[in-house]
Design brief:
Order of helices and strands: HHHHHEEH
Radius of gyration: 18 Å
Number of strands: 2
Shape: elongated
Distance between the termini: 53 Å
Largest sheet: 2 strands, antiparallel
CATH superfamily: dinb family like domain
Strand order of the largest sheet: 1-2
Helix content: 40-55%
Number of helices: 6
Structural class: mainly alpha
CATH class: Mainly Alpha
Length: about 200
């Protein structure tokens, strides 16, 4: 069995520390958003083809779990092969562009690939979905910490959904955070809809 370096409490890379802070912040935002929601509110949809809060979070759980697995394998490979480098890292145009279009501020509309689609709202219960989201963020934080010292640009990772899409390890963390922020904002808009059920 391969022994990997101990996960540090303090990271040498400011970039990675920022990713940890972002994942932790997303946990707190979801905790606050979901705390007072009833089951009816959690599953309520603004329209037939619109997502509920439940579906927004389940989409992140499904897609995030697949991405996490791919990143974990890439990080394992990086440690085995000694693919190390000192920060800071710079990323190519496409990686930066892909991260920007995932941000909540992006006006580009994107359709989720089938592999990342959530379960129907009626089948999603609040506690398991929120708990899974919290655990997913902790798992991402663990992999961010394991990446400290690796070459975040040279280690490339293929998308689980689109195999031709390959991004640098560091870019994948940034894209994942942007994607989560985008759908968390979508979930917030659901709770602000005029038809949202009252407590």
């Amino acid at each position: 069995m391969t022994n990997f370096p101990h996960i540090p409490n303090e990271l040498k890379s400011r970039e990675l520390q920022g990713f940890c802070n972002d994942f932790s912040s997303l946990k707190e935002q979801v905790r606050q958003l979901s705390a007072d929601l009833t089951g009816e509110q959690f599953s309520w949809k603004p329209a037939e083809k619109k997502w509920s809060v439940a579906e927004c979070l389940d989409h992140l759980n499904v897609g995030g779990g697949l991405v996490l697995s791919a990143l974990r394998q890439a990080i394992d490979r990086g440690h085995r092969n000694g693919i190390v480098a000192e920060p800071p890292f710079t990323y190519g145009f496409f990686s930066r562009f892909f991260s920007r279009i995932m941000e909540p501020s992006s006006r580009l509309k994107m359709k989720s690939v089938r592999l990342y689609l959530p379960a129907p709202a009626a089948k999603l219960e609040k506690e398991p979905v929120v708990t899974a989201f919290m655990q997913l963020q902790d798992d991402f934080i663990e992999q961010v910490k394991r990446s400290d010292g690796l070459d975040l640009r040279r280690i490339r990772v293929a998308s689980p959904a689109i195999r031709l899409l390959r991004l640098s390890l560091g870019a994948w963390f940034a894209v994942t955070i942007a994607h989560e922020k985008r759908h968390l904002e979508q979930a917030r808009r659901v709770t602000q809809h005029p038809g949202f059920p009252a407590n």
